[in-house]
Amino acid sequence: MTVFNAIYQILWGDLITIPLPGGSSLGLSLLVLILIPSGIFFTIRTRFLPFRSLPEMLRIAVEKKTGSSRDSISGIQALIISTATRVGMGNLVGVVAAISAGGAGAVFWMWIMALLCSSTAFIEATLAQLHKEKDPLYGGYRGGPAYYIHHLFVKKDSGRKHSVIAVLFALSGLICWCGISQVIGNSVSSAFTNAFHIPPLYTTILLVLVAAVIVLRKNATVKVLDILVPVMAGLYFLFTVLIIIKNAGQLPAVFERIFAEAFGLRQVAAGGFGAVIMNGAKRGLFSNEAGSGSAPCAAAAADISHPAKEGLLQALGVFIDTLVICSCSAMIMLLTPTELTKDLAGMDLLQAAMHHHLGDLGVIFIAVILWMFSFSTFIGILFYARSNVAYLFGDNWLSQTLYKILALVMLFIGGLAAYTFVWDLGDVGIGLMTIFNMIALFPLSGQALDALRDYEAKRK
Question: Rounded to an integer, what distance in angstroms lies between the CA atom of residue 265 and that of residue 20?
Answer without folding.
Answer: 13
